[in-house]
Amino acid sequence: MKTRTEIFDTIAAISTPPGEGGIGIVRLSGEDSFRIVDSIFKPLKKLPPASERESFKMYLGYIVKNGKILDEVLVTYMKKPHTYTREDVVEINCHGGAVAVQEVLRAVLEKGARLAEPGEFTKRAFINGRIDLAQAEAVLDIVRAKTSKALQTAVNQLSGKLSCKVREITSRLKDLVVRLEAAIDFAEEEDVPEVELDKISKELREIKSSLEKLIESYDEGRLYRNGVLTTIVGKPNVGKSSLLNSFLKFERAIVTPIPGTTRDVIEEQINLKGIPFILADTAGITETADPIEKEGIKRSRSYLEKSQLTIFILDGSEKLDERDIEIASRIKNQSHIVVINKVDLPLKIDEKDIKSILGLDSAFVKISAKTGEGLKHLEEKMVEMVQSGKAMGDNQILVTNARHYAILKRAKDEIENAINSVNENKEAELISFDVRSAMDTLGEITGEITNADILNEIFSQFCIGK
Asked: H/E element holding 35?
């Protein structure tokens, strides 16, 4: 548990990624930010006193330590409460590169700032009421967004769309609680209306429906946030690595005519219509005495078990063999696409044989990884498989966070308990208890109901400086 001093002292961190770049930024937040920077910043023109200084204006000058210039910088002073953290904030724009920003950060820390913990700037924005907990989590999703769709979803959440919907539902629940508890507390009063259970039941069912829509959106939302683990499997030398290279449009995996070239799983990511697919090129599944190849096959099977979408590659220029049939039996209950490769060669494979194992409704795509024929159709089929024909509108609220999903499910269960209590004509106190429980549960999404452990878990996932 942090002390009050630790929560409200002045923090500092580098807010730009490591490595060479045009700019490196050292950020400070806290009541001593201006004083600390003023003690090491020598502007080219004299600065007005901090109280009269223009906020969000850049000042050119030098960071000086022990009479030595560390870097030429641009300094921006930002006065509370109109800042990211709602505290006084200063950003020092240094030249990019590891040494300059590290030296400037060291000078700041020596003057009394504390090195920020991961996510501490955003945590202060939450603690100081600038954003709620769902919005704070959206900041991390924006940083980690892999596609434009993932970014759009995260920006929607940061703008408060999910929070507004949750608060709308919470407000309706609160109104129900007030009506139920008024009937309990003032049962003897003549001017207090009786609880109309039919109306209560109707409103609870409407609220349950709203929660169900949010819960159902998670299947789509998590695709944009986390990506789809897509495992490319098949026996050796059917073109798995060639397909990976075709997807990526560069030679990522080594391709040779020798079976067993791929010994380990290779992961890469592609973006198809806003959905991130994490492609896993696996070792060919076969019987072998080679201990290294055995380990690669073991890893292939491990990936296959956790795969969300499987691309099963067959060599179209050969007839099915026992290895193909063994792999087919493993994937028949998984979401899969059967890819018949090498259509640039005379086809010998019989689709009927594979359909007899996998079923008539399996998706089949014919391609040539060598020439690129059929690749576009395969990409379209992959999107269709995971999207099930759904398209995300610009303003649609999608639940992308597993924490939010679990909370919504708990709240829905509590609403169902309340509906059952109403249907069974139970006491108003019991109905009110379930409704209030749902209301408090939903408060965990926005952080109105939370604890230190949850906050620490969430903000520890952030980078230092955000």
From this structure: helix 33-38
Which residues have a Cβ under 8 Å from the Cβ of 50 and sit 6 or more positions away?
Answer: 34, 35, 38, 77
| CATH tag for 140-217+398-447 (out of 1.20.120.430, 2.40.50.140, 3.90.1170.40, 1.10.287.110) | 1.20.120.430
CA contacts within 13 A on the Cβ side of 176:
34
Taking the CA of residue 117 as centre, how many other CA atoms within 13 Å lie in the half-sphere pointing to its CB?
Answer: 14
Alpha carbon distance, N-terminus to C-terminus of the chain: 21
Check residue 275 and report its DSSP letter.
E
How many angstroms separate the CA atoms of 459 and 127, rounded?
12
Digit-coded pLDDT (tens) for 152-176: 888 888 988 999 999 999 999 998 8
CA distance 194 to 189: 10
| Structural class in CATH, domain 231-387 | alpha beta
**Architecture (CATH level 2) of domain 4-131:** 2-Layer Sandwich (3.30)
Start-end of H helices in 133-258 = 133-144, 148-158, 161-185, 197-216, 218-226, 240-248
Report whether 291 contacts 282 (CB < 8 A). no
Token reading at 83 = 């800042």
Cis peptide before 18 (omega within 30 of 0): no
- The DSSP symbol for 194 reads P
Domains of the chain, residue spans: 4-131, 140-217+398-447, 231-387
CA–CA separation, 112 and 9 (whole Å): 9
Amino acid 256: pLDDT: 45
Write down the pLDDT at residue 416: 93
Residue 127 and residue 80: Cα distance in Å, rounded?
Answer: 14
Q: Rg for the chain (alpha carbons), in Å?
A: 29
Structure confidence at residue 263 (pLDDT): 46
Inter-residue contact 378 to 367 (CB < 8 Å): yes
Give the phi and the psi of residue 233 in degrees, each rounded to 5. Answer: -125, 165
